[in-house]
Write a structure and sequence with these properties.
Serine Threonine Protein Phosphatase 5, Tetratricopeptide repeat; 2 domains; 10 helices; 195 residues; single chain; 65% helix
Length: 195
């Protein structure tokens, strides 16, 4: 038994020195569970030594359990790193509402587009990029991605429409757009000769 207590104390000390909040709390929780209502001086001393590392909530929970035994079936503040806890938590909120600012943040159009392209949904990706470029005409990444779709699909008419819509905007990579138009024009001329 003394070796086990030494191991628990060493684990607490190690995580405390590392400044690891979660692991320090988990190690303390395991020690409190092992000792039950025994070893009050040791539990107090280790808890006091780690106050600078663990959260106020976890400190409050453990200090409230000092006079009584902490048992494995107790509801504890969340600690997935505890070896001995059954994982029953006092945390009552299962779903948390995110702030309005977080919920209004949209996923980057480029991430959405890359997912769509990976699943072969080129027209949907093109539509999203066109809308995104109209909103941010100076965005090089969106412009380049849309140009690649036009190049791949040989969609000269959509390319012309976008150039017309963005004629008075500071279009990112306007030279690349003109180059693509020339390339698409050459491709349509060559295909008409071969027909």
């Amino acid at each position: 038994m003394p070796q086990d207590l030494t191991s628990h104390a060493q684990r607490i000390s190690l995580y405390h020195r590392l400044g690891d909040t979660e692991n320090t709390y988990a190690a303390l929780l395991d020690l409190f569970l092992v000792l039950g209502n025994k070893g009050l001086p040791l539990r107090k001393r280790l808890l006091q030594q780690t106050t600078s590392v663990i959260t106020a909530e976890n400190y409050g929970f453990l200090s409230n359990t000092l006079p009584t035994a902490l048992v494995i079936t107790c509801n504890t503040p969340l600690s997935h790193l505890s070896v001995l806890s059954l994982g029953r938590t006092r945390e009552e909120t299962i779903i948390r509402k995110t702030s309005d600012e977080q919920s209004q943040k949209k996923e980057s159009p480029l991430l959405i587009v890359r997912d769509l392209l990976n699943s072969g949904q080129i027209s949907q990706a093109q539509s999203i990029l066109e809308s995104a470029l109209l909103a941010e005409p100076d965005n090089d990444d969106i412009s380049d991605e849309l140009l690649q779709i036009y190049r791949h699909t040989h969609d000269r008419s959509s390319c012309i429409q976008m150039l017309e819509k963005l004629s008075s905007s500071p279009l990112a990579g306007r030279e690349k757009w003109i180059e693509l138009m020339i390339t698409l024009d050459q491709g349509s001329t060559e295909s008409s000769f071969s027909a």
